[in-house]
Amino acid sequence: MQGPKYLAVREHLRRRVSALPEHTLLPPEPVLCAEYGVSRITLRRAVDGLVADGHLVREQGRGTYVTRPPIRHEYRESFVHRIAGFNSVMTEQGAQVGTAVLTQRIVPVQPPIAAELGLETATDVIELVRLRSVDGTPNHVAHSFMAASAYPRAAEEDFSEGSLYDFLRREYSADLAHARIVVDVGTAAPDEAEVLGVIAGSPLLVVRTTVRDSAGRPQVHSYSRLRPDVSQVEFEVSVGGR
């Protein structure tokens, strides 16, 4: 119960404080507990998340008051004129992108990924998991998968810098022509919460991308799990090749 309840309270509080002037004091804890019908532990957990995200500040002897989080960075991948990944697009905009490779290995493909890549089950794929940051702030965890037989050197390449898509073009002349993007919502598992600097169970944006070649064959499937407090997703749509 506590997980869903505190998340609901936190989201309602987030919308509430976003409409208040900066430095506005929140009502005392007993008042908020009565208003939301929750225990003090549940309320404090909800407020803790907003403090961590930069929406609220606690001050000894004063209480909890409204502040403003830092400007959010847009999560951008351009698929209109070219397939360009997060690293390339953000670097071109002047942001400092950091990458830590968390997992890089060859594994048998799992059924959901096999379906996205059009592979038989138990086919080997390269799994690449990276923590991406923007100007020093953890932004998202990116999971990428591709057939090991098609791109074997991707299992050993150093992806702590640079773009996966650029590597595939450079080393394999990969034909990355089309992309399908699906956005939904998830919650942070404990290991994700630790590297992203959020509380376990916090909501995350989930962006799933399958990149295909000119003939429609899947080449790369990725899903990125983003902190919504420091990210927003932007889509640009081109009609008629313009």
Automatic annotation (TrEMBL):
Question: Which residues does the UniProt record annotate as the domain HTH gntR-type?
Answer: 3-69
Q: What InterPro entries does the database record attribute to this sequence? A: Bact_HTH_transcr_reg (IPR050679), Chorismate_lyase_/UTRA_dom_sf (IPR028978), Tscrpt_reg_HTH_GntR (IPR000524), UTRA (IPR011663), WH-like_DNA-bd_sf (IPR036388), WH_DNA-bd_sf (IPR036390)
The record's Gene3D superfamilies line, in alphabetical order, gives:
Chorismate lyase-like (3.40.1410.10), Winged helix-like DNA-binding domain superfamily/Winged helix DNA-binding domain (1.10.10.10)
Q: Which GO terms describe its molecular function?
A: DNA binding; DNA-binding transcription factor activity
Q: Kindly state which keywords UniProt assigns to this record, in alphabetical order.
A: DNA-binding, Transcription, Transcription regulation
Against Pfam families, the record matches this protein to:
GntR, UTRA
Domain of life of the organism in this record? Bacteria
List GO BP terms, alphabetically.
Answer: negative regulation of DNA-templated transcription
User: SMART domains from the xrefs?
Assistant: HTH_GNTR, UTRA
The name under which this protein is listed is: GntR family transcriptional regulator
Q: Where does this protein come from, organism-wise?
A: Geodermatophilus sabuli
